[in-house]
Every structure is written in structure tokens, then in C-alpha cells.
User: What shape does this take?
Amino acid sequence: IDTTDFADQVRNYNSLPPFKFPSVMFPIKQSLKSSAQVDIHISIYAAHLYDSVILYAKALDQVIKESIKNKEGLSISNLARNGSRITQTIIDMGGYQSISGNYIRIDNNGDSEGNFTAFALKSHNY
Assistant: This one.
């Protein structure tokens, strides 16, 4: 169960229009004497979307600064729509710190590789 600030913000925004998702709390046992309420799990796709938007924004910011420095005279709208330039800028960054806590590397082909840790491995017949 994710109790990070990011997950709390996602839960809050999910309760607002246009989504209006109901908040559901699940009791968990902390000890014999106390219990706590924990909100529902936030999908990993929310983190992927967040990372995508932040990565695009950082790349666009860099492209705009380069355009101004090189006196290209292009509008922000044109720069924002230049997908190949944005993509190459992201590749040139080499990686980013994901909201999920992992550092994600990006290779020269634009493929991403996360740094993940397995906390438990259980045998299971699939």
C-alpha cells in the first residue's frame, strides 16, 4: 500500500471532478493494541503518466533554452510539436529519477531500463 505524498495527491485528485472516485479505506492491523486506516492502492500507471509528463516538460524546457541561445526564432508551439527533437533531448539526458523512487536509464536507442529490487520471491505455478 503506497502512502507516499504522490499517492496521496493522486487519491485527492481522483476524488475531484471529472473523476469523482469514492475514497475507500481499508483497516490494517499495526499491533495487538492499535490499527490504522490505509487508502486504496494507486495504479503504477499514475506514476508512469507523471514521469512521462515531467520528462517531456524537462526536455521541452531544454529545447526552448537551446532555441533561444541559438537564436532560432521558432515559436514554443513549433518546438513543442517537434517530436524527434524532444525525443533526442530525452535520450541525451541519459536517464531520470522516477516518482516511484527508481532511477531509470535511457540508452542511445531510447529504450529505458529501470533499477528494480525484488523484496520477495515465491514459487508459484502459473
Remarks:
- Strands lie at 25-29, 35-39, 95-97, 103-106, 112-113.
